[in-house]
Write a structure and sequence with these properties.
This protein is an alpha+beta fold. It has 7 helices and 11 strands. Strands 1-8-3-6 form a 4-stranded antiparallel beta sheet. It has a 4-stranded antiparallel beta sheet with strand order 2-7-4-5. The longest helix has 27 residues.
């Protein structure tokens, strides 16, 4: 119990709640901490959002499958992020995408009615919550828009620019597989390989299974 309280108190959203309030809610079952193993599905696309969920630890990913069957990795969430915060009080409270745990994760669950009661009595908590979900909705919407409007090559170039700057080198060591990279781009593995091959033929890059080297910026 002490571990859970410390994790919750470390989340800025809960700064306005005292240690005693968190403990009482945990003891009464109003706050519930749920553990998810790696690669487990938390919510399926189309599932109804009926409770507030806050990530205490771990890594959660949001995926979508397009009409061609391509898996698109929309976003990643970590400690302090809220799942479905903008859906909970919606007239259409259904998850538009699949949510899963990419690693072992702990999530705090709060019933909708309990959350509303906290809103009513703690306006600081309410203000912080509204700010958080507003910022998150903007970021998620912008990311979806970026994916939808860019060609495969543009996505590859942006990725290479980012990684080259991060690693301070034109020789980029891949931290994920090309299959995982294709999922992030929202394209098939074969489509990514085909575009990389074209870029190599044009003298822009060379690559192997573990790295990509930029030859012409």
């Amino acid at each position: 119990m002490k571990k859970y309280i410390e994790l919750i108190k470390n989340i800025p959203l809960f700064n306005s709640l005292s240690h005693e309030e968190i403990l009482d809610n945990l003891n009464e079952g109003f706050f519930k901490v749920v553990s998810y193993v790696k690669n487990s599905i938390i919510h399926f696309e189309g599932e109804q959002c009926i409770k507030f969920e806050l990530i205490l630890s771990g890594k959660i990913i949001v995926d979508s499958i397009d009409e061609q069957g391509n898996l698109l990795n929309i976003s990643e969430f970590y400690s302090g992020d809220i799942l479905g915060g903008n859906l909970l009080f919606s007239k259409n409270p259904y998850y538009p995408m699949t949510i899963s745990a990419q690693e072992v994760s702990l999530i705090l669950e709060i019933d909708k009615d309990v959350l509303f009661k906290i809103f009513s009595t703690n306006h600081i908590f309410l203000r912080t919550y509204l700010q958080h979900i507003s910022d998150n909705a903007y970021i998620l919407g912008d990311k979806i828009k970026q994916h939808a409007n860019k060609t495969i090559r543009k996505k590859i170039i942006n990725y290479l620019k980012y990684e080259s700057k991060r690693q301070n080198n034109n020789h980029i060591v891949l931290s994920i597989t090309k299959t995982a990279l294709a999922e992030k781009f929202g394209v098939q593995r074969t489509s990514l390989s085909r575009e990389l091959a074209k870029m190599r033929e044009e003298g822009l890059i060379i690559f192997d299974a573990e790295s990509i080297t930029i030859l012409d910026k």
